[in-house]
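Sanity check. The docking grid for glutamic acid depends on where the pocket ends up, so I'm generating a full predicted complex first rather than guessing from homology. Inputs follow.
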Amino acid sequence: MSAQTAPPSKKAIAASPTTPSDNRSHEPHETEATAHMNFNRITDEQFQAAADHLKLDPEIQLVLRTPYRELIVQIPVRMDDGHLELFHGYRVQHNAVRGPYKGGLRFHPEVDLNEVRSLAALMTWKTALVDIPFGGAKGGVTCDPTKMSRDELQRLTREFTRKLDMALGVYRDIPAPDVNTNPQVMAWIMDEYGKKHGYTPAIVTGKPVSLGGSLGREQATGRGTMIITREACRALKMSLKGASVAIQGFGNVGSWTARLVGEQGAKIVAVSDVHGGIHCPAGIDVTALFAHVKEEKTVLGFPGSVSITNEELLCLNVDILIPAALGGAITRENADHIQAKLVIEAANSPVTPRADEMLRQRGITVIPDILVNAGGVTVSYFEWVQNLQQFRWDEARVNDELEKRMVAAWQLVHTVATGQKLPYRIAAYCVALEKVAEATRQRY
Ligand code: GLU
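Predicted complex below; grid placement will be based on this.
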């Protein structure tokens, strides 16, 4: 495989909390003042709407919106061809009033400080919403793992772990998988951390089961997404059985969501990955698709399907649309073309605030990321607990506890949304903010 050639983003390094340097244009022309919509602004706007609704004390607001610690590290890696490549890595620890920092690490060319900062805040609200004793963090490395060999990725991961060492800890900050990272990467982190600190499985979650990972963790985000989709359908008096579903993304989250939502009797009519999408109006045999992807490394070319673009997938005439890829998928540019009745945010930040508003005006219900995809971090919590106790749960127990926590979170959000006539996103933020604000008040 060829070595990474793109230089790390200088822009990202220069970023500061007051000078957002986002280079991803999700929402062009959003306001005159900002040429680009950036992730930080997305989550800031969502936070503000809920904080205003709750009439949250401005002092508490300031504490809640400000990250506790931000780390930018240099990661020099000797590549396979002998040259030294310089990568940049980030870890933003947003808030830990309710427990240690918790959140994934992503490896992606577009990772920058702004994105990581925004995703870290989402983790704080997510862990509060499902009531697990963690705060919020996120990290990442600006790199293109599809252009790196396994050895290069391993060296990168180990060097990043050494650079983060002082900020991590079983009771301080516990990373996990996110976009383009997986159990193998988590295994390298555990191994590298263990060289200095001794056997410490609870330092990272989403590990391979053979190294202390939890049964059910791999499917957990998809399972949580299925549970919330099921509950949302019930609330909206829509039948999930027979409903047509389009899923953008066929990574860990998208693929398990397809399988588990399909098992509920829904008809998965379209899925996509970075290469493009496939459409089968009669419904996709998801088990056969898993086998196809294992062979071909893409959903494209699945027998009996028609190729479509990712953009076409989002605009299909389906009952349920599940964006399960990167952020910023639904913007003001395409929100008017969305035809689904229900949008389930399995990815983090897939719908921008303006698009959210446009969907709402058209009567389309959006169920927010911090609720939908919280199953992953919930089972990460179970993994951490099992590691601390050195006692393994069986998969039925994991799934059962996950079901209970997801349904409890859904009920809280649904009660606030319907009782106070709020969109589900604002309701979810209100529930989460209240919990973090309460813990903050008690500390200060
Ligand atoms: N990266 C996942 C998320 O965005 C999981 C985080 C975790 O398990 O700590 O929720």
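Relevant for the grid: Confidence is low (pLDDT under 50) at residues 1-37.
Also worth noting: The radius of gyration is 21 Å.
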